[in-house]
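[Q] Does anyone have a clean structure-token version of this?
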Amino acid sequence: GFNPEAINERVPEIEEQYGVKVTVSLEETPMGTAGPLALAKEHLKTAAGRPFFVFNSDVTCEYPLADLLAFHEAHGKEGTIMVTQVTDPSKYGVGVYEK
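[A] Here you go.
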């Protein structure tokens, strides 16, 4: 299950290893997939104009962050969302896009 203490314990190690600032926000009540962005509102204001990544804590894998950042900067749009295809999206949701 979800263990916020375990995540918070690893934050200093991750920040040092990757040279990044990690901010963790914990939902007191479920807010949906993008709801936690509202919790990070003040942090995002101070980082205005600088790219940032948002992750759901229940998802762990090897992310191609350097490639994703390069893709984002190359297209010059406001945002980039990385998704993956699954066999049964009923428990994850669906991303609809145009090619």
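[Q] Thanks! Anything notable?
[A] The helical segments are 4-18, 36-39, 41-46, 65-75.
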